Amino acid sequence: MTTLISPEALDLLMSNDRAVVIDTRDPEAYAQGHIPGAVNLREIFTFLATSTVEGLHDLKATFAKALGEAGLSGEETAIFYEDAMNSGYGQSCRGYYLLTWLGYPKVKVLNGGLSGWKAQGLPLSSTPATPVAATFPTDLAGADVMLTKEDMIAALGTDTVLLDVRDIDEWIAESSSPYGKDFAPRKGRLPGAKWIEWYRFMKPSANGPVFKSPDEVKAECATAGISADDTVYLYCFKGARASNTFLALKQAGFSDVRMYFGSWNEWSRDDALPIETGLPFATRAESAPRMNLAA
């Protein structure tokens, strides 16, 4: 079953099914106009998690409470959206990833975001939603998609693909985060990581940026030497952009994809953990193969 849903299909689903639509934008944007009935839950994007036992317990407890208050009991379909797929840093996909981790059975992401909804001439509302609170199911069998700092340490120097999907300035160690160059204490990358900027898994459409097709996603991965058979460990700064990539890879048939949700925000704050710094490429002289001219 596909996770991505078009604006037209969402409009139909809301009419015929028990659906809870969740707006992940900031409250000001929500107040100016949102999908009718949508619940505003900005914390989907803003919550900063750590991968300790205590940190993951807090993450689960926080969102079990918030999503229950939004009306999710396990019976409803949860649909997340942001403004546009290329401007929200993957925030709607972060909701999808969290519910996948928690084992929630029915989750979708609006492909094209609110921009796609508006492009189809569908209605907006400025009236805040009043959801009927439910008890979020905490006894579900969650998916094995969450990685800890220790998992990433164990993967260093192995065949596991560490895929960094941050913006270019973070990858080349000019900036530590989207919140400012010096928001995190160190700039750099995980040693041996490959890089595909998260924007590359989307393309323009009449509805604004949407996800590329499975074959197009596989082609993008092939440029970095990554195949659908690889074990892929994703990271970004706090698990939002990597959630966008997580969704793209899962839709493309990558079976062994997990994410380090603590990402650079956690890794950079532990001085005992190794990082690569400087420009992540060699000069021509360094990279050129040596030739034996004596033969």
CATH topology of the largest domain: Oxidized Rhodanese, domain 1
The largest sheet is: 5 strands, parallel
Fraction of residues in helix: 25-40%
Across the major sheet, the strand order is: 1-5-4-2-3
Distance between the termini: 60 Å
Q: How many discrete domains? A: 2
CATH C-level category of the largest domain: Alpha Beta
Report the sheet-strand fraction: 5-15%
Low-confidence stretches: 285-295
CATH architecture of the largest domain: 3-Layer(aba) Sandwich
Coarse structural class? alpha/beta
Q: From the alpha-carbon coordinates, what is the Rg to the nearest angstrom?
A: 20 Å
- Along the chain, the helix and strand elements come as EHEHEHHEHEHEHEHEEEHEHEHH
CATH fourth-tier homologous superfamily of the largest domain: Rhodanese-like domain
* Average pLDDT over all residues: 93
Inertia-based shape: globular
Number of helices: 12
Oligomerization: single chain
Strand element count: 12
Word description of this protein:
The chain is 33% helix and 13% strand. With 295 residues, the chain is an alpha/beta fold. Helix 8 links the parallel strand 7 and strand 8. Helix 5 (91-102) packs across helix 10. The protein starts with a strand and ends in an 8-residue tail after the last helix.
Tags for this model:
single chain; about 300 residues; alpha/beta; 2 domains; five-stranded parallel sheet; 12 helices
Write a concise synopsis of the structure shown.
By secondary structure, the chain is of the alpha/beta class. The protein has twelve helices and twelve strands. Helix 5 crosses helix 10.
